[in-house]
């Protein structure tokens, strides 16, 4: 088959476009319209020198507004630039020691001789002498909005076979941040101004000898989850029809062997349904007054084998910024609108409903002000329904727009 010069040029342009499109997603600067500045920042502070290297404190900060790191937690991998080893570590551990006996003939062996060590957080029951402030949470980090104090992790490394001055130390390469669901990409380590440390009594300030930062960002495109994890159903006071979660939103119910009708203790964990999602969200417009209208929202955990700790939900709705009056039963925060995206994040109250227990529900209500005094005109064009819902950072499957409850003709 022969192509003309114009056809060849068109094909070349198309291939270039596809290449640039894929290249844009391979960048470490992934873009999230709901949280454009959210990231995982890894800060590496060299605090002292040793005979053959240095001691460093590594801090991991989750600066993401709504995405948290759930169990089994984070892990961190990098590549040493030279022949460095980890003599000792506090607040974390490497998953493998490596063949240290081949390199070291002494009695004391390094904690890790791996060229590409992978570190994980320690568990909460770790002995006190192995702990460090902000460590030992099993790798779990809350989102920045929910709890900044628990969105940080840290550990201390004693590095050997390394440079012992600012000019001879080599910065590690190829950082990789792993978390459930993947999707994170890290940029190169960049040397920055040394960190300043303030003493607990705030009377003395010290600083790191050397500091470098690594920024990791999340991309829905890179995560490429095989199936969604939640779906949304809708109903209103003015229409008897309930719009269910779309069929097969998360999976299809092929047989009774893939789901359970009740908690039977067998392997299948998700309740049998037409949508087969472990989480379902029901949005009900239940009250309409002259100046206000009220929504009742129910979040159902249909998973018989999992509790969702420190869960959160992000809701896109055109009236959150100017017309939100109150949220009852949960904590909430409004995000700054970006590209006409109006977003609110809701999450549970500690010791009350911050844990969505297996096979249970959490309910809350949202009160909106009206722009005018008409009773139902503000509900036209699906004004009363969310544009999108995210549970624990995953976008829920919404019903198609044509299926939304319609206003009665007499309205």
Automatic annotation (TrEMBL):
One of its GO terms (cellular component) is side of membrane. It comes from Arachis duranensis. Keywords: Glycoprotein, GPI-anchor, Lipoprotein, Membrane, Signal. Transmembrane segments: none annotated. It is found in: Cell membrane. This is COBRA-like protein. It is a lipid-anchor; GPI-anchor. Residues 229-263, 267-405 form the COBRA C-terminal domain. The gene is LOC107486368. Residues 1-30 form the signal peptide. Belongs to the COBRA family. GO terms for biological process: cellulose microfibril organization; plant-type cell wall cellulose biosynthetic process. InterPro entries: COB_C (IPR056900), COBRA_pln (IPR006918).
